[in-house]
Amino acid sequence: MYPPRTTGFFAHPRVRKALLSIGRLAGKGGEGRVPGLTIALIAAQAILYTWVASGGPPGVEALIHWGAKSGPLVTDAGQGWRLLTANLLHRDALHLGLNLLVFAGVGTAVERSCRWWDYVALLAVSGLATMAGSLWWSPTVSVGASGWVFGCVGALLVLGRRARTGAKSARMGWFSGENALPTVLVFLWLGWTSVGVDNAGHMGGLMAGLLVGVLLRSRAWGPGGFRAVALVGLAVLGAAVVVTERSRWRVEHDDGFGVAVSLPDGWRREEDGQERRAFSNGLKGLGRATLTAEAIEAGEPGDGSAQAQHFLDASLVPGRAGPEGRTVSVGAVEPASLGGRPAQRIRAELDGVGGRTHLVAWFVPRGEWVYRLVFTWPQAYPAYARVMERMTADVRFEEPASLRVARARALLVPGVAGPLRELGHALRRWGLPADAVEPLASAVRLAPTQVDTRVELARAYFESGQVEAGCHSAAEARVYGPSDTGALEAGVRCALAQGDTAGALLRLEEARRVDPRDARLRAAEGALKAAVEAPGLSPQRR
């Protein structure tokens, strides 16, 4: 689990000098007004931390549950409110204490100098800018109130410099940059030299404070409520622009297997230990969403139901723990469609590391391959269902690299049997048997004694539904290779295609006597068993 980044400060010898400077500023705010809003915010943060940390320092999942800034939940699940709530949370007691100590000084100084609505606007703008800056820089979890601190200090810098030349200089002179600027520089330096500090958030808060300081006026200059509302509106708009920019999608291509999937741009590749394509939103517990994809070599064209059933039996046994959690409930294999291709689908519910998790697995056949795509997303964030719907809607099946290479070779070396046979083999293997017939037939005419080419042509005919032509090619292959296991296997396929399971069994036994270990014969045996076990069929000539 990655530790959360913090918008806060760590213990350092230079902190004491900086805090003393801020303390002097707070004591000179004028008029002795009680900083009620600052006190209320400090109390709210302390109470919230006490509640969240009732069982010990909160972990990442607890912080996410209570509203920490988490890039995937903001951009994928649309929870933009986290850009505000994250300012109220803290990682541990030291983080809380240092932030509240500094905020007590600078917050009091600003509240005593400005109208209350200007102070609220400053806090809202700097809080949004802090977490928006953090989101722009990194999607990792971030919490802390120091964005407010930097926002207040930035506003003090501007107000102090303005007051030095105005009529109220005696009253506002304590704001001068000579007092506050060293404090800012110290804290920025500490952030850049420390580990786990959200420096992008600090810079966002500081820049927001400087901007608000330019546009706002102190209490001495009278009211300005409309200006405060406009500033908050601009901050919301700016945060929305950042969220929109970080909510882009990208397309992941697997050129080897010819599949493309759209993903949120913040998702990253993971290693799952099984050499599969695995992606996630980066969260390890609460809020975790994943996609795993692989191509399974089936050996025989099918509808994917066998692979779906195997996944059901091996990975989704109720009560058994799997990679994404313990299976709670699972549905049956059901026909569906994905990327414009027929598919099989399984739905399940898991108890994952972050709570109840939805799972949908797709099995899409393509020639001798079956694509398996497994999506999981947290039940606690139903907006992720829309993310998964878009991902599945955008799945595209493209021409694999091996097929493109075979086409190129056939074009570069025309009239040669070898490249034509390779092209026909690739077309048939990737689920285009009708397209494979022409190059394979041409290869047979160019090299009629090549038994493997005739066998490949017979398979292309059978898989494209041309049984008579397939049986003719199988018979010719047997003439040129009477003891060739490929030719014998083609004869088995001919008998099966004609519904003669008894004849297929006899031919298979003959072929197995020639080579009992041949992989093609084992595949034919599997096809024969499936035909015999099918309802309404028996091993007899029909």
Automatic annotation (TrEMBL):
Regions that span the bilayer: 117-137, 143-160, 172-193, 199-216, 228-244
Family membership noted in the UniProt record: Belongs to the peptidase S54 family.
Membrane topology: Multi-pass membrane protein
GO molecular function: serine-type endopeptidase activity
Keywords: Hydrolase, Membrane, Transmembrane, Transmembrane helix
Protein known as: S54 family peptidase
GO cellular component, one term: membrane
Gene3D superfamilies per the UniProt record, alphabetical: Rhomboid-like (1.20.1540.10), Tetratricopeptide repeat domain (1.25.40.10)
Span of domain Peptidase S54 rhomboid: 78-218
Gene: gluP
Keyword presence, Transmembrane: yes
Subcellular location as annotated: Membrane
Lineage per the UniProt record: Bacteria, Pseudomonadati, Myxococcota, Myxococcia, Myxococcales
